[in-house]
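Dear Dr. V.,

Thank you for agreeing to look over these. As mentioned in my earlier message, I'm a first-year student in the group and I'm still getting used to reading structure tokens, so any feedback on how I've presented them would be very welcome. I ran two proteins. I've put each sequence directly above its structure. The first is here:
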Amino acid sequence: MNRFAILAAALMAIPTMATAQEKTDKPAEPVFTVVKANPVTSVKNQHRSGTCWAYSSLAFIESELLRMGKGEFDLEESFLVYNTYMDRADRAIRTHGDVSFSQGGSFYDVIYCMKNYGLVPQGTMKGSLYGDSLYNFNQLDAVTSAYVGAIAKTTNKTINPAWRKDLSNIYANYFGELPTSFTYKGKTYTPQSFVSYLGLNPDDYISLTSYTHHPFYSKFILEIQDNWRWAESYNLPLNEFMEVMETAVRNGYTFAWGADVSEEGFNWRKGIVTVPAATTDKDNSGSDAARWTGSNDLNNVKAADAKGEKTITQEMRQLAYDNWETTDDHGMLIYGLAKDQDGKEYFMMKNSWGDSGPFHGHAYISKPYVAYKTMNIVINKKALPKSIAKKLGLN
């Protein structure tokens, strides 16, 4: 073969070699190995409602009962939501509408409810759900928000106290009557005696966060609209905040996780959540899951993997909160740790969007994302490392 034929052959070979190289360089799909997975109950579906706070906090309590050896329970979201919405309506009216009345809530709502109203097992309340099998608040919220808003902004000099009964009747029709007593496995309980039967102590649970606009190792009221009960969170430096979460999971604890899920890196379609170093445009459309993920198809697996993640600092976290880039979007449950084929560790998360996504309602959350976009967590204070609990005055 002459030199020109060799050159032509070489030139013809370049595209094939480049294609082979591209295939080699293409990132492989992550393959996860469980490091630690604490027991959780089944995935639920909040459907067309803004009640992630109820589903995630009760999922946390259910996992606490598993950890405590109490067995598997399915607790009633309707009981929690009914009581919470009545309380929120009262607060909105007392403040002339300055406290927002909406579908949202906080993890503290379940702690408050558990302490003041109790809990009940699933199936105790028999509402209509307006003919739906799952929550659909499109009609319910339109009616109740208009009703509460009209009273909160009234120009009347007096308010007829009958509004509470009227509003309660709307909720009773949808969720079912609030029980004063019920039978569970052949025994009769009140909602509060049921909490005692479960062996739960509301005072065991605390909220933690990490922001610099308040002193570390102190408590402050997290400034988000759905924290309408003005619950306090303990404030930790970011490294200790992350230490609490990882140590807790490794020692058998779960925690309720409140986070921003509107970021491009929250890729529910792939079940993997990261903080990509580079971002692209995204599409946002409506339904609780779809409005955060930008797709109505929760099982669609299309978006490309990020090639790297940002290194998160305390300053980045604070700036994102101050600029409203980090928003109080969604409540979930963190219950485990896993690693990919490169040894990178992720938190394991359980959601309340039903059996959707490639991991059937679960996802893997990178540690940078947790560091960057966690709003707050609620956790059993016994899960804290002793040195950190001491700094917070909890031991």
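The second protein is here, in the same arrangement:
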Amino acid sequence: MKAIDKLSEKLLPIAAKMNNQRHLTAVRDGFIVTMPLIMAASLFILLNSVIFSNDFVNRFIDLSYFSGLAGIVNNGTMGILAILVCYNIGYNLANWYIRNGNITNKGFSAVHAGGVSLAAMFVMMPLTSTVTLTDGSTAEASEVYLQGLTSSSGLFLAMLAALVGTELFVKLSKFEKLRISMPENVPPAVATSFNSLVPEVLVIVIFAVAVFALDGLTGLAVPELVNKIIQVPLRGFVLSAPGMLFLQFMSDLLWVFGLHGSSILSPIKAAPMLESIQENMQAFELGKDIPNIVTEPFVGSFGLLGGGGCVLALLIAIFIVAHRKEQKDVARLAIVPSLFNIAEPVMFGLPVVMNPIFMIPAAIIPSINLIIAYFATSVGLIGRTVAAAPWITPPVIQAWLSTGGNVPAGILAALLLVLDVVLYIPFVMASNKAAQQQDA
């Protein structure tokens, strides 16, 4: 218990600072708003797989004509993720400054911060790019923005534009001499626009000069530089087996100390994970080999059975071997939320948090599941994830949906749940014995 207390004393302050750090919070909340769009794209990917392009269904009624719907929906959802994320990060970061009283300018608007973030992002995009034509040949196209930069592939550029652009905008907005004051009878929207006019123009000019100088000195576009310095190394870590396991273990370790690990680490994982699932969805839609094993749906389908710590298995183990009435009472109340991957009733009600017995399996079992699932996927025993099923989708069903209806994936998730129950049983028995000794 002393070791746990010491670890808690060192870990909790660091995690709390990360959770409240303004830039990480803005990035995390900026990604959350994209989830409905990802679900919409995933829905049509599943419809395409299970119905529109399904040979069995088309024997009775030919619905292949509707298979193009998935591509249309993808253009309006996954294809614009970077734009939405950029605006929302700028908006969220500016709102943090407003809420915390760091900017007293009443004319300052978070909406303008989102707008200038978008402007900065598009300023950094090259207007001449190499494109692939329908016949497979390539050509140079000018005055176009590639979807590769407005979709998940452009998320790092979007984050850079939003964070740097908003910080510059906030700092410049604090200078009273840069404000254009309007008469009181002028509508608020007009007054705010004029109030922000000079700071916004300066931000755009700063970005434009930096892009112009970079191109002149190196011949590189900003997206190329961001890709080489940030995107490729971070993606390589997050989407690797060791990186996935490290982040999952840290997430579960934070959970058992009472902190929402997934939320804290999402600024690190979100961009690579979104890019990987979009690549899988596009490959699946085109009938190509699925490139990535590690995606957010993969982690959710196999490493979060019942929520953080795979606590659904813990509840089942309690029903099987527990003798303590209070444990069974909590299990009865928590079983339904856990079936929809809501772990809080178990984490704080049993509790698992700061419980020296249950902390150990809750922090380790999800990583064990992911090791097994990663191996099974890599050798072709189960399909790769190609859709983002809602996180509240019950275990087993979630694995089946996320892999586009792959039955072996659903079977593996069920087997992992059984394994998790077996792993939790000794700890439930130990908990009962410890409680009996305290009662004696």
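From my reading of the second output: The CA atoms of residues 157 and 223 lie 6 Å apart. The mean pLDDT is 84. Does that match how you would interpret it?

Kind regards,
E.
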